[in-house]
Specification:
538 residues; alpha/beta; 5-stranded parallel beta sheet
Length: 538
Amino acid sequence: MTAAPEGHAPEDIARTELPGRVDVLVVGAGLSGIGAAHRIREVNPGIELAILEARAATGGTRDLFRYPGVRSDSDMFTLSFPFRPWEGRKAIAAGGDILDYIRATAHESGLEELIHTGHRAVAASWSSDEQEWTVEVDTPTGRRQVRAGFIHPGSGYYNYEQAHDAGFEGVEDFRGTVVHPQFWPQDLDHAGKRVVVIGSGATAVTVVPAMAETAAHVTMLQRTPSYVFGQPGVDPFVQMLRRRLSPAAVQKAARVKNLGMQYFLYELSRRRPKAANKIALTELRRHLPKDVVDEHFTPPYNVWDQRLCAVPDGDLYSVIRRGRAEVVTGHIDRFVPEGVRLTDGRVVEADIVVTATGLLLKLLGGMTFTVDGEPVAMERAYAYRGLMLAGVPNVAMTVGYVNASWTLRADLVSRYVASLIAHMRDRGPGIAVPVAPDGMTAGPILDLTAGYVQRVVSAFPKVGDRAPWTMPQNYVKDKFAFARADVTTDMHFVPVGAKGETLPQGAAAPAELALPGTSSNVDGSPGDVRDETLEVAR
């Protein structure tokens, strides 16, 4: 049987009625949305702004995920807001602590009053004559419209209502409980139970050691080996600095150190992949037997072809060494009453199966966009600086890094958007729309071979092969590029009040991209890229 998800109590923090019109409408009240709203108001004092949050509580994915051991998958000195230093002890922080941090930031910055929970932005229609968006919003009391001069979706790209279904056969035959981490039932008791966690990504690497402390035994069942990398949960360098420096100075120094390490390994993986692989495997062999590393942690791909999972304080290594958990690598044939049967005939017995098989992606929170009566085909749009869409006026989105903390790029995006809005308010344009040049070669906006990305990446907007249409996975390069960015490059402006002007369309991107493919996403087993669908804004 499958365990049903348990809901969370509404936060009910909205203090004001949602206005009928605002200058800027921010969608999402997680890390991206709160950060964007702060930066926009910081640069544009007095601007009329509202934040819509579809769920009953703020915090985004930090409120959604409630599985055992849930934590950050990046260090908090790069994941936290630059304008509000992280002062928690742990560099890899528990999910509840991150949620408290996000909500405290919204409260202290005065944004809490502007958040409207239970308000889902469904569709947006642009009128060039009116120079504004009309946004359809589902509220607790019914649907209503809100007009906005500028929209900034900060809703990430996860589907909160549905998770990826890998299509395993025979689930109905299983005598135990099946649960997906995205919908974790808070009353699930795994003490003394045999647990199988299907998957080897960040969620599985988190859940396995957390459950292993009280479960009878935990098995991490993966079809392809994956890289993991240990790091201290409490950073001794930071603790030393805190005895001498202010929180802001500590945050800056920790960022420099951590970014330097991340940049070194990522760039090495791109330029000398064998050397990067050796570093990762050498670190693993310090903690686990060579035969375990060779069989279960030596992938057929290179480091950073997929996101590198953190193992704080070696917790995963510890439960494996102590026999509390094990790793099994093999392809699943089907579920059977006593557990999961593999294609080689082995049966992994279980009382509880956790399907940590990935997430579904949902672009811009599932909003649909129409410009002057024409639906926007997201898969044909080039992404300007990875944050606006060619041919779509007065909208900016947040897309973070795949190889570093999401917030690093989210903050650069927010500051650019704040500057663009200030430019429009100061100089008089009522419309800003990027125009893609002809002749660009398209690439994926999310450059990862992970299955959950490859299943749907062609339906996302594309990046180009020249500035400002590229999106380098490099914070240092981006930091300098955004600091020097000219908001007028490849941007078409229309004065306030102008009517009857047709917006330029520019070049269209190809709807499909060739997939690089790895043995983990195109090997013919359940969960491949072959049959997945994506909710996209059209």
